[in-house]
């Protein structure tokens, strides 16, 4: 499987166009959320065939091994830049879901020279409540493994349109995690820094789920209102929860395709 070593750890990735983006297309790099993997994005990739799509497992998730090396939102952002460097990509559209939404907003604010545009899908907004939830979740997984998460999240964090097949995929994504890596990423979210959303000037798309309890509409609106980009758009998907790309791949894929076509 293709891997690249960045910042002293291995990152597993896939690349739809290793030779470079197709003519008139862009390079997009995708960062998944907590308890997930690059495979979260595969249901939307058929909508983006005219672009180069790089998907990765963040350090400590799925097939990117956890070694005990510390991890933070800033270190994940640095890993993304490291992957772009290794693949000789000067700048890319950064796409992030949930925890990955934290990462791409940080990239947009701090790595403007590498970011062509930002797509935030159900981005989490740092708060005391989020820190408390993540700290508790880290302890649960450290004591009981991934089963408690796999038995609750697929139904509890999705909307009424979510199919049983999509819930099964979410369960598999969660059970495929290293509990130590998952707990470390919980702590990374709990200690996430405040992000200067006003520093994001690149084109910006935010996709929210109307039934999302993990990244609330209020939090998404807070982020969107503070982004300074002159080309920004927020879309709310009815009856969709927190796992947008598997709950509504056609809508999410179509929105990103339309957004990327205008860049």
TrEMBL record:
Gene Ontology cellular component terms for the protein in this record: membrane
Keywords: Hydrolase
Gene Ontology biological process terms, A to Z: acylglycerol catabolic process
Annotated AB hydrolase-1 domain residues: 27-132
Top-rank lineage group of the source organism: Eukaryota
InterPro entries: AB_hydrolase_1, AB_hydrolase_fold, AB_hydrolase_sf
MF terms (GO), sorted A to Z: monoacylglycerol lipase activity
A Pfam family this chain is assigned to: Abhydrolase_1
PANTHER family per the UniProt record, alphabetical: MONOACYLGLYCEROL LIPASE, MONOACYLGLYCEROL LIPASE ABHD6
UniProt-recorded name of the protein: Alpha/beta hydrolase
Species annotation: Aspergillus japonicus CBS 114.51
